[in-house]
């Protein structure tokens, strides 16, 4: 039996968000490891499209496509999105024909447009199996809190049409409808993408770390308010610092809060960091911060699995979270390297963080091994391949 040829379709710019890029590559490489011929098409910068072929350890560029029309704005806007998506689908059709693709795996494309629906019609007409991923679900509050109201309206209009055209919905979350064939899964991780952090010697300084494209759901404002309350107290035994790495959504006002709370000496904004610079920050820091305010975008009690939590585990750093992390909900007891805090409290209790630091000796290898055993991408995507192999469309 010939191997299935699967094309991972991503409309993201892989140069813009290193964390997303690692997820895309991890999924595409997992498809190879699950005995598929795995390819991916994605933006590389604003005016280039790359096509990759994946093996179990590496990926090779097999095609580069240059787009001559420049964007009218660096910020996301509907005009650039519409032009880009139309061109992107034209080129994707050529790749599908050239490589004789029989299955596609599409990461959610925002917003849903007639161009996308027309492309899905093309795939169905050519009997190509369509798996469509929602990387976070429900999606409505996430779009609204990020400020993309027009994109939200378009998705509300076209969502039902999209669902009718796909073969399989891959949902990272709990799917609350019965209108299509779907699989609920979790984010995975390829630990080989991340350097294991060094084990720190304990002292009287605690360095906290938050990494990613910062949006309201991360709740870093709670850390700042917690630090203010902590430093308003007297006789602090530990000095606590918060390092923030990544770009920020305009709706997040952390710089202003830092100045207002007079935390300039304890909150450090590093901007986007990658490679050795990012590795060094992980080595410096003792505890990471996962999302503390997911209840701003989803219903309280819903299980989630952030990319950030996977990177933290792969690097071997303990982390703090609020809400319900997907891989913990069946556990009778949390691993010693996780601290769950109250998502309904508007600040992070730093004294609780200090106790977490004091009461444990964190071993990076232990934390990384947990990710290897429980959160590898092959385990997360096996059910997708099984569904794909069941269908002869």
Which keywords apply here?
16 strands, about 400 residues, alpha/beta, eight-stranded mixed beta sheet
Major β-sheet profile: 8 strands, mixed
Structural class: alpha/beta
Low-confidence stretches: none
**Which of globular, elongated, flat, extended, rod-shaped describes the shape?**
globular
Strand percent estimate = 15-25%
Order of helices and strands: EHEEEHEHEHHEEEHEHEHEEHEEEHHH
Q: Would you mind describing this structure in some detail?
A:
There is one protein chain. By secondary structure, this protein is an alpha/beta fold. Helix content is 37%, strand content 23%. The chain contains 12 helices and 16 strands. The chain has helices at 18-33, 78-99, 114-125, 140-145, 149-165, 220-232, 254-260, 275-284, 307-315, 350-359, 364-374, 377-390, and strands at 5-13, 37-43, 48-54, 59-66, 103-107, 129-137, 168-173, 182-185, 205-211, 239-245, 267-271, 287-289, 303-304, 319-322, 324-325, 338-341. Strands 4-3-2-1-5-6-7-8 form an 8-stranded mixed β-sheet, with helices on both faces. α3 runs parallel beside α5 (149-165) and α9 (307-315) crosses α11 (364-374). The longest helix has 22 residues, at 78-99. The chain is globular and about 70 Å long. The chain starts with a strand and ends with a helix. The relative contact order is 0.13. The mean pLDDT is 90.
């Amino acid at each position: 039996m010939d191997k299935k040829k699967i094309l991972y379709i991503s409309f993201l710019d892989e140069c813009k968000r290193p964390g997303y890029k690692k997820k895309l590559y991890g999924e595409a490489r997992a498809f190879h490891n699950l005995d598929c011929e795995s390819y991916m098409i994605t933006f590389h910068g604003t005016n280039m499209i790359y096509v990759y072929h994946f093996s179990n350890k590496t990926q090779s560029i097999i095609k580069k496509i240059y787009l001559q029309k420049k964007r009218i704005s660096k910020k996301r806007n509907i005009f650039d999105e519409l032009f880009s998506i139309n061109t992107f689908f034209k080129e994707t059709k050529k790749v599908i024909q050239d490589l004789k693709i029989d299955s596609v795996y599409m990461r959610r494309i925002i917003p849903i447009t007639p161009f996308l629906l027309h492309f899905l019609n093309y795939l169905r007409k050519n009997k190509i199996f369509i798996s469509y991923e929602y990387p976070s679900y429900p999606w409505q509050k996430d779009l609204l809190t990020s400020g993309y109201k027009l994109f939200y309206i378009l998705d509300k209009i076209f969502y039902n049409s999209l669902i009718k055209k796909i073969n399989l919905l891959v949902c990272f979350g709990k799917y609350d409808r019965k209108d299509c064939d779907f699989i609920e899964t979790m984010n995975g991780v390829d630990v080989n993408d991340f350097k294991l952090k060094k084990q720190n010697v304990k002292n009287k300084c605690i360095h906290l770390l938050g990494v990613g494209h910062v949006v309201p759901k991360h709740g870093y404002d709670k850390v700042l308010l917690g630090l203010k309350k902590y430093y308003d107290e007297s006789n602090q035994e530990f000095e606590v610092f918060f390092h923030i790495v990544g770009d920020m959504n305009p709706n997040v006002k952390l710089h202003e809060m830092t100045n207002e709370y007079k935390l300039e000496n304890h909150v450090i904004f590093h901007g986007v960091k990658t490679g050795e610079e990012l590795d060094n920050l992980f080595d410096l820091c003792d505890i990471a911060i996962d999302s503390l305010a997911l209840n701003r975008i989803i219903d309280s009690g819903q299980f989630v699995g952030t990319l950030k939590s996977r990177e933290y585990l792969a690097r071997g750093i303990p982390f703090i979270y609020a809400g319900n992390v997907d891989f913990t909900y069946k556990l009778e007891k949390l691993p010693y390297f996780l601290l769950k805090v109250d998502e309904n409290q508007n600040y992070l209790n730093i004294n609780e963080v200090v106790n977490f630091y004091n009461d444990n000796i964190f071993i990076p290898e232990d934390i990384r091994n947990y990710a290897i055993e429980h959160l590898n991408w092959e385990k997360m995507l096996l059910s997708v391949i099984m569904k794909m192999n069941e269908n002869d469309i």
